[in-house]
């Protein structure tokens, strides 16, 4: 079990959903920004948390939506704590 120690693992909140309006990714970003504001220890050090948004962007409209989400993350000043994974391949 020591091989799978949780001590060295990164803390991650993972959202898996296509980048579509009904998934309301902006609400996820705002909620995450609020979490970091309310709990500053989650913003750095060993307690830091990362939000990963993983999903498909099927067309130009979805890709524009992802860009808008990236802009919102920048506006909320959470870019260092957010990772976007778009159209990840399935092994």
From TrEMBL:
Glycosyl transferase family domain mapped to chain residues: 3-89
Name of the protein in question: Glycosyl transferase family 1 domain-containing protein
Record keywords, A-Z: Glycosyltransferase, Transferase
UniProt cross-references to Gene3D superfamilies, sorted A to Z: Glycogen Phosphorylase B (3.40.50.2000)
Signal peptide stretch: none
Keyword Chloroplast attributed: no
Gene Ontology process terms (BP): protein N-linked glycosylation
GO molecular-function terms, A-Z: GDP-Man:Man(3)GlcNAc(2)-PP-Dol alpha-1,2-mannosyltransferase activity
The keyword Glycosyltransferase is annotated on this UniProt entry: yes
A single GO cellular-component term on record: endoplasmic reticulum membrane
């Amino acid at each position: 079990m020591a091989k799978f120690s949780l001590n060295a693992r990164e803390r991650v909140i993972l959202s898996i959903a296509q980048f579509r309006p009904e998934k309301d990714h902006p609400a996820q970003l705002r909620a995450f920004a609020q979490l970091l504001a309310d709990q500053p220890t989650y913003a750095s050090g060993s307690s830091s948390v990362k939000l990963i948004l993983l999903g498909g962007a099927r067309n130009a409209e979805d890709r524009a939506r992802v860009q808008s989400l990236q802009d919102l993350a920048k506006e909320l000043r959470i870019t260092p704590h957010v990772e976007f994974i778009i159209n990840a391949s399935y092994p």
